[in-house]
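The passage that follows is intended for readers who have already worked through the single-chain material. We present the inputs for a multi-component assembly, then the predicted structure in tokenized form, and finally a short commentary. You are encouraged to pause after the input and sketch how you expect the pieces to fit together before reading on.
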Amino acid sequence: GQQLNQSPQSMFIQEGEDVSMNCTSSSIFNTWLWYKQDPGEGPVLLIALYKAGELTSNGRLTAQFGITRKDSFLNISASIPSDVGIYFCAGPLIQGAQKLVFGQGTRLTINP
Amino acid sequence: NAGVTQTPKFQVLKTGQSMTLQCAQDMNHEYMSWYRQDPGMGLRLIHYSVGAGITDQGEVPNGYNVSRSTTEDFPLRLLSAAPSQTSVYFCASRRRGNYGYTFGSGTRLTVV
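Having made your guess, compare it with the prediction:
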């Protein structure tokens, strides 16, 4: 079953605001991935994290691999309209690294 | 490179019908997977393959078959379609050692 819990499930913000979302698990993960899905498209990889405590940026996006290895965070600074979409966290199960599990997603809506 | 190509983009089936969802990638990726996406559920793994001739079950394999005769292709077969299989299906591929999957644009399937 579902092993990754994302929060919040949806966000409604104003353009220019910063965004924070997180992903937690009862299991330890050795890798955390953050994807974005635009309407009618498949998810696209934004950031990959491979080490506990790691902080990685991709433009206005910053993601962190939690110290406990059971959580991860994604921040978006100065949001713009093209940031609209669904953001997913994902990670490979340790016992079956080929199996990538996904959170249920955070839907971001931006008011111009 | 076309990346991951899925066909068809849309399909309507009657209960009990069978069909094959096609997936092809031109990146010479060893690993390929099929996911289904349902509202509020994130993406759930159906079947995956770590190379030609090798497949295994994911989280929700019942009602689906796969085969991997070549590195490039990974078709998903619905044996006897049921309304519960109404969903958006995504094929994805990745290179061994890199957990970042590349996704296709999806097939939206409706079973009536």
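Commentary: Chain B has a mean pLDDT of 94. Chain B touches chain A through 25 residues (CB under 8 Å). How closely did your sketch match?
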